Structure formats: C-alpha cells, structure tokens
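for the record, two folds in this file. i put them one after another cuz i was lazy. first one right below, seq on top, structure tokens after. the second one comes after a little note so u can tell where it starts
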Amino acid sequence: MQQYKIRISELAEQDLENAGDYIAFELLNPIAAENMVKGIREQINKLEVFPASYELDDDPILAEVGVHKTYYKEYKIFYTIDDNAKEVFIVRILHMLVDSRAWLYRTFGISS
C-alpha cells in the first residue's frame, strides 16, 4: 500500500491559523484551539492512505475538478488528489457555517 504525500496550501495554513486564533483569543479558550488544530492535522494525516475514499464535494463543478472533502468536528477540509504524483493537496479548511462554495470558487478561479 503506497502512501500519498500531503501538501498544504498557504490558504489552508492561513485558514487553520485563523481558526485557532479565533478560538484562542476571541473565545478565550487556548486549550480548545490547540486541540482543534491538532485534530485537524491528524485528520489531514489520515489522507495519506486511501484519500479517494472520502467523498467528492456536493457541488457538481467542484466535484468535476476533483475537490474532495473530509471533516473534523465543525470544519471541512477540502483537497484534491494527484494519483500520478501520489500527492494530496489540501486546498482550504473552512468552518461549516461559512459559504464554502463561494470560497472554493474564488480559490479555483471559477466564476459563479
């Protein structure tokens, strides 16, 4: 069983940092922030094996470009898979209450 390499976009890293900062500084719960960031990273690491086992995005345009998603608590982790290079590319990490379709369309340069 060959493992996939995980690459994380700058936007996804920023998403994760922003979420952690919000929980730590706005909600004043640094322990929860640390646990959330750790949990998301652990969920991302699970993608090293069988990343295609997680569902494609519900949006047909995003599914057509190969955007998959997995979840950690109230966060969605969006990614693409390059089977030839054996790489998983984490595109965005967004809270479930955010209009992820709009953010992903902008990320991929898709006009709505």
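(here's the note) second protein begins now
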Amino acid sequence: MSGAHAEVTTEASLPRATALLRYAALWLIGVSLRVTLLAVPPVIPLIHQDLRLSETAIGALTSLPVLLLAFAAVPGSLLVARTGLRRTLLLGLVIVAVFGAARGTASSAAVLFASTLLMGVGIAVLQPVIPALVKAWFPSRVGIATALYANGLLIGEILGASLTLPLVGRSWGRGLAVWSVVVLGAAVTAYFLVAPVGTGEAGTGRWWPSWGERRTWQIGIILGSSSGLYFAANAFVPDFLHAGGADRAIGPCLTVLNAAQLLALLPVIWVPDKVVGRRRPLVVAGGLAFVAVLAIVVSPATFVFPAVAVIGVTSAFVLTLSLALPPLLVEPEDVPRLSAGIFTIAYLGAVAIPIMGGALWDLTGLRETAFAPCAVGSLLVAVLASRAELDPGPGPGG
C-alpha cells in the first residue's frame, strides 16, 4: 500500500511544466507511430507507376506493418526486460525514423519492402513500451495519459492521409521520408524526458506473455474485434456504396468514419473514473457497433453516414480503453508483457476480420456478407467485456 501511495505522491508533486511536457511527449509518440504508416495510401498510385508493383504487392506493402504489429510485440516486451524502457523506446523511435525515411530513397521494390519491414518492426517494438511509460509517468492518471496518446495516434492517421501529397507534390519518396522528422522529434523529446526509473530499469526478467491468463485473451479479442471492424469499414464501405450506386457518398463517408474517432476521447478525458477500467462502457460500445453494422446492411444509403460515425467513435473508444488496461491491472514490470500478449492477439484479429469479410463477399457475391464478421466481432466485444477480468492484480498466469 505504501509503495502505491509513494507513486501517487511523486506524480502529484510533479511541476506542472514537467507534466505538460510528458503529456506532449506521449501525444507526439502517438503521432509518430501512425503518420509513417498512413503516409503510404495517398502515394500508392505514384509508387505503383514508378516501381511497377502489382496489386498484390501493393496490398502486401500496406498490410505488412500491421502484421508486424502482431508478431513483433513480444520481442518488444523482451527488449524492455533486457535493456530497459528508455533504451527500447529510443531504439524503436530511431528505427522508425531511419527506415521510414529509407523508404523514400528506394529505387526498387526490394528496397522499399525491406525498409517497410524494418520500420514496421520498430513500430511493433514500441507498442508494449507505451503502456509501461504511462504507468511510470502517470500511475494515477492512466486514463487521461492514454487518451492523449490515442489522440496522437488518430491525429497521425489524419495527417499522414491528408497532408502527404499537399506537402510534397508528386514525389512519393519525399512523401514517405518527410514524416521521419516528426519521429526524430519524438526521439529527441523522449531522450530528455524519459529517465531510467521503475520499468525503465533493465533486468526485470519477465517478458513472455501469460497466454494462459484469461484476461490477456479477453482484452486482446475485444481490441482485435473492434479494430477489425474499423479496418473492414475502411475497406468495404467504398465498394459497398459503389455497388449500390452511391458513389458520391464514398468520400464523405470515409471522412466521417475517420473524423468521428476524435469524439471518442472526450469522455475518457472528461470523466476518466467513470469509463476507464470499467466493463459497462465496453459493453455499450460493442452493442452500438453491432447496431451500426446492421444499419449499413439493411438501411438506405443515407443511414450509412450515422452508422460509420458510430463505428468510428466506438472503435476509437475501445482502442483507448484497451490501451489503458495493462497499466491499471498489473505491476509496472508486468505491463509490457501483458500489453505484448494483448497486441499480438488484437492485431491478428484486426487483420483476420477484413480478410474473412472479403472472402465471404467473393464466395457469395452478396455485398452484405462482407460485414458478417464485423457483426460477430461487435457482439464478441459486448459479451467478453461483460465478463472481463478487470480487477487489478496478477491473474492466473501471473
């Protein structure tokens, strides 16, 4: 009890300027982890033309980093255990900056894919680091700190998707390289702000996720199902509307879907005690997402706009609440390994749901079937959240 009290006292005594700098650093790191990924879609036609990539290669180029978010999360936990939080954070950011920029110098498909692979490894390694950093910096303000980090992720997506072409014109190389400046800025900020305390010390030993622990799977499937719905909506809503003769609605719908995510962070910032670490908000989010999926499938095209807005809000809401759970549930030294287990499960699910939806559409020829996995995933969010083990302390495997 005294140890927990000491953490809160230390945090409460932080100078206001230091706390604000830490919040800003979390936000900037969030931007860095997404802006380099979302800079690719706007320049795909230019890459396609210059490097003569097939559609399969283009698909692999965009999906490769997402798969790495699943497979390299556990090595990230190992790095934290062996080298410390600070070194892992700095290493990951430098890898993202260097190889994110290297993509822009690629003169062949091989170099582009190799650079993308290594950049994806850097991003994946950082995934379990951030919840541990939140725990070390803001043990009693986990919800607010996580919301600001999540806001950075969302802003990074918007910046990468919307500003890449206006910034660099028709040079896809500069379009991919320019955002590494932001990542380097995050690395410099982290260098001066992150001290080797708490989980920052190496040698804690425990890094392998507790795969037998129920809540690892519960939270992982909840996050994966919600993220899969978001990715599937981005993938299928355009073709769904096109097949229904509503081409003019495609652009506005995608804008609504992605912009609506920003609204999800407001309750986490305003009333964190009522939503963070609680089952009911996740249950409600899953239920609303299920209704939104049904609205897309069975309603006129005009209902697609509010439906995708709900999907955007609920997916970002579930993401933020899920990111906040590891720092709340376990001791600092166990945050990276719980996070790594959750991210491994979640990103595999996030990739699987759109693939299953596309396969169903191809198999049946019915556009509505593409959203069947999304509906099942939304129900899983609600059901698993209602039974999730969200009480702090070690679980069965810990």
